[in-house]
Design brief:
5 helices, three-stranded mixed beta sheet, single chain
Length: 166
C-alpha cells in the first residue's frame, strides 16, 4: 500500500496536467501568410523562419543593417520594388551601376576611414578628405564620381558601411 499511494499521486498529477492543457487555449502553428496572435480560444504562433507581423505570419529578414538601409532608400526613391535586391559595398549602395563594384572595393579602406570619422558632405568630411594621400583621394573620387554618374541608381553614406547580407 505504501508504494501505491505515491504512484496514485503521480497518476493524479499527470491527469491534472493533461486536463489543464485540454481545458486551456489551443496552440496552433501557422504558415506564411496565416493569421497569428492570441484570442480567447487559441494561441497561433508562426512556424520556423517566420514572425508575427500585424496579425499575419511573415518571413524573417536576414538582411544586414547596411542592406536594409540601402533597400529602404532605393524603395523610397522608386528605383526598386519591395522584392528586389541591391548591392552594398563599404559605403556605396546601388542597384544598376556598371563598374561600381570594382571601384567600391578598391576604395574600401579609404571609404571606411572617411565615413567613420565624418558625415559625407560635411565640412569635417572635406577636412578628412584633404588629409588623404593623392592615391587615396583618386580611389575614393573614382568611386564617388562613378556613383554620382549613375543617378538614383547609386548613393553613398555611412549607413552602408559593411557588406550586404541575406
Amino acid at each position: 500500500m505504501s508504494r501505491s499511494l505515491p504512484m496514485l499521486c503521480v497518476v493524479v498529477l499527470l491527469v491534472a496536467a493533461f486536463a489543464g492543457d485540454a481545458l486551456g487555449k489551443k496552440n496552433v502553428v501557422r504558415q506564411l501568410g496565416g493569421a497569428c496572435g492570441e484570442d480567447s480560444d487559441i494561441v497561433a504562433t508562426c512556424d520556423a523562419g517566420l514572425h508575427c507581423s500585424n496579425g499575419n505570419c511573415a518571413m524573417n529578414s536576414f538582411l544586414s543593417d547596411a542592406s536594409r538601409s540601402c533597400r529602404d532608400i532605393m524603395i523610397k526613391a522608386g528605383v526598386i520594388g519591395s522584392r528586389d535586391t541591391v548591392a552594398v559595398h563599404d559605403g556605396f549602395c546601388y542597384k544598376s551601376c556598371d563598374g561600381m563594384y570594382e571601384l567600391a572595393m578598391d576604395a574600401t579602406p579609404v571609404t571606411e576611414r572617411l565615413m567613420r570619422q565624418a558625415q559625407v558632405g560635411s565640412q569635417a568630411f572635406a577636412d578628412e578628405f584633404a588629409k588623404l594621400s593623392a592615391g587615396d583621394k583618386a580611389k575614393f573620387k573614382a568611386a564617388e564620381d562613378k556613383c554620382n554618374s549613375c543617378g538614383k541608381q547609386c548613393t553613398i553614406g555611412a549607413s552602408f558601411l559593411g557588406r550586404g547580407g541575406y
